[in-house]
């Protein structure tokens, strides 16, 4: 037994730098999850005996009997972190890259990235709604309200960009409406209504721009 | 088919980490307080780990188990609930990291998770075994020499022992009740102890008596400033007279205590006559006060009123037992008459605060009881010898043998009681150093070395959290404690006196804490399945645990 142990000891190698980074990132994520869970427990949330099916984190339940998974609904998963469609930070960084590319006269700006990227250029990213009681319902789908002042994109690419933006806003409007119909919580309904009104405002400004 | 769920090491770690993050912000001398609000609008501030953890809504069985362990530990030692959770979480993290590296030991398991769990279980068992057999030797050799002894002989004398005792109390009340009232409560506590001290018995006897009868011994008064708290002579019965109370006569009052009903409950003419005859008999003995544990019938009340006797009904069991103990048992022995029974009145602006002060008092009693427990009794010879001159200089004025620190060079038996060490992580630093050195020495096996190093690493998390606001302070504290090690122990140097400023904590309490944490850890890691039941499973301790919580949560796990 001891001999076997020695042989297998020699097989174990210390993790490489990339693996160390992954381990470190995972540990930090776990620490963040614990801290968030602790905060919610102190606010009166209940720790359930169940785990989330998606990520395996312990579920919390608020006063309105709604289940809440800290990692799925507040922290982004490792994969979705860089997807601009799901993360306004990633979208903003992509937009900035595009603006830098557009300043170079020879290169034409590339229309890559998600449909929300042009919308993100006019928007100011808000802090995450971690401190709201009804954060569970909002989740990451809450878009920050649009800001009127924005740098106008070049005229040649205006029309398709505006069309894309309109389509994105309409999609979100549709989604918010379906959520509102099925929503049971007061806070969530208020937030969804505000989302719908901000979508309507965005549509109005987009249509004004196209005229 | 009963639904089963596998418990993995990750679940355990996540649950305990969540509990750790709850108490982390209140931990240490710079920790904050938690504001509790009820639906009725009442608010209360508290830093007590036990109160915070029991107020949480927890349905997860592992979390409830941990909180129950903390509660039980706190009921015995009176302190250390936050340190418990911190140490537990740190041990789990280290074991998790070790288990994921060393799963080769249990290759026969199907999955890596099962192998990890088995490794973790094995490590926890080894840790507990090590702690139960060897840890006390490390503490006696490496930690106790740098501490001080408390004595309960004479509270007012300014000896070194007495100073340690006073500092221990002040630092305890400081952590629990804040800086403003720690001196005031220390004085009140010492006064209470001195009144209840039985001359020919061990001090722990009177402290045990006070602890057992504390609910009967104190009265909480709200709406009055804290400085009005004081001791009053005699015992307070928390009930009003059920019959009109005539004027107090000059001769000593005679009282009769009844545990049951006087006469038979059912009303009948025969009963009336029997009650009258009982009252007449009592009157012939000269009894003027009747204390009853149960509610008496109107016939009894009428008869007592007619006879001019004061009757108090529904007196609690603790009050009756204290009353009978003081007035009957104490009078057996002449020397015991010197005890002056007194009762504690705790005043505070609000009910919640009065309750907190009362709990702090009782926890101080429990802490002292644990501190005075004998630390270590061994037949093996000490490896290091302690010079006898320094030993005798400490207790020149202390001739009795209860709470004295006594090291005999010629005898091979060591009994250490009442030892304290300066707070601020000194215990953890010293024990960490000792275990670390032991782990690196050549005379130990690989397994023991791994286990002792694991424990050493986990212990360091406590001072790290204490000084989490400033890493420089952590390093300074570590350097200061490490500088103590090569010195001659028990020397009252300038260094030791400086450490007095940090306050004291009991070594025995810390030892009990480490053992309790390791036992809780072993129990946690032995679980690997979760069974969901359709009925409510309640135990008595669970009910008393949730006595404070206002919400009526549904316990069904469907």
UniProtKB/TrEMBL annotation, chain A:
Pfam families: Auto_anti-p27. Residues 109-130 are annotated as: Disordered. InterPro entries: SSSCA1 (IPR009563), UPF0148_domain (IPR051888). This is Zinc ribbon domain containing 2. It comes from Xiphophorus couchianus.
TrEMBL record, chain B:
The keyword ATP-binding applies. Transmembrane segments: none annotated. Keywords: ATP-binding, Chaperone, Nucleotide-binding. GO terms for biological process: chaperone-mediated protein complex assembly. It comes from the Eukaryota. It holds the Pfam family Cpn60_TCP1. One of its GO terms (molecular function) is ATP binding. InterPro entries: BBS10, Chaperone_TCP-1, Cpn60/GroEL/TCP-1, GROEL-like_equatorial_sf. Belongs to the TCP-1 chaperonin family. This is Bardet-Biedl syndrome 10. It comes from Xiphophorus couchianus.
């Amino acid at each position: 037994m001891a001999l076997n142990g020695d042989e297998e000891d020699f097989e174990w190698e210390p993790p490489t730098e990339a693996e160390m980074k992954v381990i470190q990132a995972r540990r930090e994520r776990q620490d963040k999850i614990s801290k968030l869970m602790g905060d919610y427990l102190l606010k009166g949330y209940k720790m359930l005996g169940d785990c989330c099916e998606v990520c395996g984190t312990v579920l919390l339940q608020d006063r309105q009997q709604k289940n809440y998974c800290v990692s799925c609904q507040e922290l982004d998963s490792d994969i979705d972190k860089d997807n601009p469609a799901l993360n306004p930070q990633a979208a903003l960084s992509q937009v900035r890259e595009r603006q830098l590319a557009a300043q170079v006269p020879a290169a034409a700006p590339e229309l890559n990235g998600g449909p929300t990227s042009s919308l993100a250029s006019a928007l100011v990213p808000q802090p995450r709604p971690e401190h709201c009681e009804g954060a569970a319902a909002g989740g990451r789908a809450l878009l920050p309200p649009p800001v009127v002042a924005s740098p106008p994109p070049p005229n040649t690419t205006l029309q398709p960009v505006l069309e894309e933006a309109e389509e994105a806003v309409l999609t979100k409007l549709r989604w918010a409406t379906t959520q509102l119909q099925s929503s049971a919580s007061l806070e969530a309904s208020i937030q969804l209504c505000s989302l719908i009104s901000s979508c309507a405002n965005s549509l109005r400004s987009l249509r004004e721009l196209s005229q | 088919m009963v639904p089963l769920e596998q418990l993995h090491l990750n679940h355990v770690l996540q649950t305990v980490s969540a509990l750790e993050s709850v108490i982390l912000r209140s931990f240490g001398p710079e920790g904050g307080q938690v504001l509790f609000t009820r639906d009725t609008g009442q608010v209360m501030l508290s830093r007590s780990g036990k109160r915070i953890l029991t107020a949480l809504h927890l349905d997860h069985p592992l979390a409830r188990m941990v909180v129950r362990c903390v509660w039980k530990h706190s009921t015995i030692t009176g302190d250390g609930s936050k340190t418990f959770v911190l140490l537990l979480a740190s041990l789990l993290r280290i074991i998790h990291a070790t288990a994921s590296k060393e799963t080769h030991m249990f290759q026969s398991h199907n999955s890596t998770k099962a192998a990890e769990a088995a490794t973790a279980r094995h490590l926890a068992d080894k840790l507990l075994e090590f702690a139960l057999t060897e840890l006390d030797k490390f503490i006696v050799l490496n930690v106790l020499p740098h501490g001080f002894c408390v004595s309960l002989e004479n509270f007012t004398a300014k000896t070194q022992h007495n100073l340690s005792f006073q500092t221990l109390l002040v630092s305890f009340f400081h952590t629990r009740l804040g800086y403003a009232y720690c001196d005031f409560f220390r004085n009140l506590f010492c006064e209470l102890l001195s009144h209840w001290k039985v001359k020919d018995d061990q001090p722990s006897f009177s402290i045990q008596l006070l602890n057992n009868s504390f609910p009967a011994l104190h009265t909480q008064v709200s709406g009055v400033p804290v400085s009005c708290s004081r001791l009053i002579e005699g015992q307070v019965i928390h009930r009003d007279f059920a019959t009109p109370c005539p004027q107090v006569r000059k001769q000593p009052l005679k009282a009769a205590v009844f545990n049951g009903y006087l006469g038979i409950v059912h009303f009948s003419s025969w009963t009336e006559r029997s009650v009258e005859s009982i009252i007449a008999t009592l009157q012939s003995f000269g009894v003027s006060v009747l204390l009853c544990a149960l509610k008496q019938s109107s016939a009894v009340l009428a008869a007592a009123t007619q006879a001019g006797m004061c009757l108090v009904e529904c007196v609690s069991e603790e009050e009756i037992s204290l009353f009978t103990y003081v007035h009957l048992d104490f009078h057996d022995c002449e020397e015991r008459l010197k005890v002056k029974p007194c009762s504690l009145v705790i005043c505070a602006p609000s009910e919640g605060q009065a309750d907190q002060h009362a709990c702090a008092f009782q926890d101080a009693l429990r802490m002292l009881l644990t501190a005075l427990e004998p630390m270590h009794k061994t037949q093996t010879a000490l490896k290091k010898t302690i010079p006898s001159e320094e030993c005798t200089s400490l207790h020149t004025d202390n001739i009795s043998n209860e709470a004295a620190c006594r090291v005999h060079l010629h005898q091979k038996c060591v009994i250490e009681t009442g030892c304290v060490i300066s707070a601020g992580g000194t215990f953890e630093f010293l024990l960490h150093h000792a275990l670390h050195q032991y782990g690196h020495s050549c005379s130990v096996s690989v397994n023991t070395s791994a286990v002792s190093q694991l424990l050493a690493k986990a212990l360091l998390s406590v001072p790290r959290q204490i000084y989490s606001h400033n890493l420089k302070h952590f390093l300074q504290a570590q350097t200061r404690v490490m500088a103590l090690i090569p010195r001659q122990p028990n020397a009252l140097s300038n260094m030791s006196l400086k450490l007095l400023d940090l306050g004291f904590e009991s070594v025995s309490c810390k030892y009990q804490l480490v053992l309790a944490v390791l036992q809780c850890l072993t129990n946690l890691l032995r679980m690997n399945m979760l069974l969901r039941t359709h009925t409510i499973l309640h135990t008595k301790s669970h009910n008393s645990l949730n006595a404070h919580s206002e919400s009526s949560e549904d316990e069904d796990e469907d």
